[in-house]
Design brief:
CATH superfamily: Vaccinia Virus protein VP39
Number of helices: 9
Radius of gyration: 17 Å
Distance between the termini: 49 Å
CATH topology: Rossmann fold
Number of domains: 1
Structural class: alpha/beta
Number of strands: 7
Largest sheet: 7 strands, mixed
């Protein structure tokens, strides 16, 4: 209870004003409590986690329709986005303990969504999931071109992959643009954020070839078009 109130204060001090703030703070408190049992986030205090929640919300203007989030971990950015936008979220998380936490968080917060406890490389070849989503996110997951290979197969043609990145050197930017073309996508936009972070938007313009994503572990070991 105390952590929820403290989280709310940090969010308000950061200038956030929205009817969902109490719900967002409640999620933060639940995440911190579970994080003491097993590792869900690197944030250890309410102040640290508040910054992660705010960073997650930076994606909200790009989110609409059905959202898929891969490598969801403790639920960032997927759960804050579901709270802020009301979208239905599907979280793909292969670690069973994390998947169990995510399912319980959805239920406790009354959010529409589900958790797929599989690697993204496998889940993306499921016909019930492949090319079914309007937008997709991934936070703190490998290189930009690896994220594109894992995420774009889930998106319908016309959908958008929304990548949160830090500093991005030109070789990685070119690798992402080239990989996107191989995957049926196009690097459409880049929005700088405070602190050197940025949002990259990849539009799905054609069907992703069936061979992608490659076998489990390969997209990370051998990123497409890597410099």
């Amino acid at each position: 209870m105390f952590e929820g109130a403290e989280m709310l204060r940090h969010l308000e001090d950061a200038g956030l004003q929205a009817p969902y703030l109490e719900r967002l703070a409640a999620y933060g408190a639940v995440l911190l409590q579970a994080n003491r049992t097993f590792n869900l986030t690197g944030a250890k205090t309410t102040a640290e986690l508040a910054r992660h929640l705010i960073d997650s919300l930076s994606v909200a203007p790009f989110v609409s329709g059905r959202l898929v989030d891969i490598g969801s971990g403790g639920g960032l950015p997927a759960i804050p986005l579901a709270i802020a936008t009301g979208v239905e979220v599907t979280m793909v998380e292969s670690t069973v303990k994390k998947a169990v936490f995510l399912a319980s968080a959805l239920a406790e917060l009354g959010l529409a969504g589900r958790v797929i406890s599989k690697r993204a490389e496998l889940a993306a070849h499921n016909p019930e999931l492949r090319e079914r989503f309007d937008c997709g996110t991934a936070r703190a997951v490998s290189t930009a071109s690896t994220v594109a290979e894992l995420l774009l197969p889930f998106l319908r043609v016309g959908g958008t992959a929304i990548l949160q990145r830090g500093a991005l050197e030109e070789p990685e930017r070119h690798a992402l643009a080239d990989a996107a073309l191989m995957l049926g996508g196009r690097l459409e936009d880049e929005r700088p954020l405070n602190g050197g972070r940025r949002i990259l938007v990849v539009r799905k313009v054609g069907a992703t070839p069936q061979k992608f994503p490659r076998r489990a572990g390969i997209p990370e070991k051998r990123p497409l078009c890597s410099p």
